[in-house]
Amino acid sequence: MRSTYNEEQVIEQLRNANTQRDAFGKVIEHYSSTLYWHIRRMVFDHDDANDVLQNTFIKAWTSIDNFRGDAKLSTWLYKIAINESITFINKQKAANNISLDDDDSFLANTLESDEYFDGDEAQLKLQRAIATLPEKQRVVFNLRYYDEMKYEDMSEILGTSVGALKASYHHALKKIETFFQEND
Amino acid sequence: MKQEESEILKGLGKNPGFKVPDNYFEEFNKRMMDSLPEKKVEIIPYKPSLWLRVRPAVYAAATIAGIWCMISVFNHVNGSKTPKIGEIAEQLHQDDNADEVIMNGDMSEYDIITYQDSVMMEMEHQGDQLKKVTE
Predict the structure, then answer these.
(1) What domains can you pick out in chain A, each with its CATH number?
(2) Residue B96 — very low, low, confident or very high, per pLDDT cuts 50/70/90?
(3) Do A119 and B18 lie within an 8 Å CB cutoff?
(4) How far apart are alpha carbons A63 and A77 in whole angstroms?
(5) Could you give the ipTM of this predicted complex?
(6) Do B19 and A36 touch (CB under 8 A)?
(7) In-domain check, residue B10
(8) Which of B12, B18, B36 sits opposite A117 (nearest CB)?
(9) Closest Cα to residue A133, out of A92, A89, A94?
(10) Which residue of A140, B61, B72, B116 pairs with A168 in a disulfide if CB–CB is 3.0 to 4.6 A?
């Protein structure tokens, strides 16, 4: 059974060297699933998502003393997860001789044969469409469409104005529609 | 939110079709805790800087030099010769000699008071230093 999570209490415990490790355990337990699904939608493959999630928590742990508590813990963790995902994708691009300016379509190519993907044809098509979006637009689309995150919260994570995020989401929707029309 | 969605997305739902191995999150959380690196607490021994160590001696030297300069300036203004501090102090400690110096008129009353003050200050300072050393 999952223990009750009190963010304020956890932040206090994170500041104390004696309780820091246990408190971080609570953070992992509380956020691992949310962050995993966000990372998974960015990198598509389960094993890759697992590695990126692990890196995210290691980075958060090693820099936990820099967390001042003026932002939400979730905002801080999302920021790290997004940065780690983009870093991973760029490394993959470099390893596959793909230009950094190209889209991330190559990531969705293995989805059909992925044992941890059981989506139908339409879901596969949607993932392929999402993979054609520029990374930041993809982040905005995923946070809004799948996580149903408020634009104000997104603005804190991405450091972008609400207006720009709305425009970005709108562009993403248009591109996905165009992809579906062109690949009908 | 509904106004933002396109007709295509409405028909797809929010399930992206991804799944994870059984008990993945429980196992991940445990594995993650086991792999968290230990945080090293570094204890840095206190080492006073060179300046902190020599500061009392520098202050003492500056004070003595300052007093000597003041005396020299006073004497220069008064047109009298500046004796060495040590000489004056020695003479002032011997009551008889002190009287003699004054009686001879080698020094003005003002000079004597100034020297006495400076010697007293020097002695007090030396006393403080001695106290510190013995403590």
Answers:
(1) 1-98 (1.10.1740.10), 103-184 (1.10.10.10)
(2) low
(3) yes
(4) 11
(5) 0.86
(6) no
(7) no
(8) B18
(9) A89
(10) A140
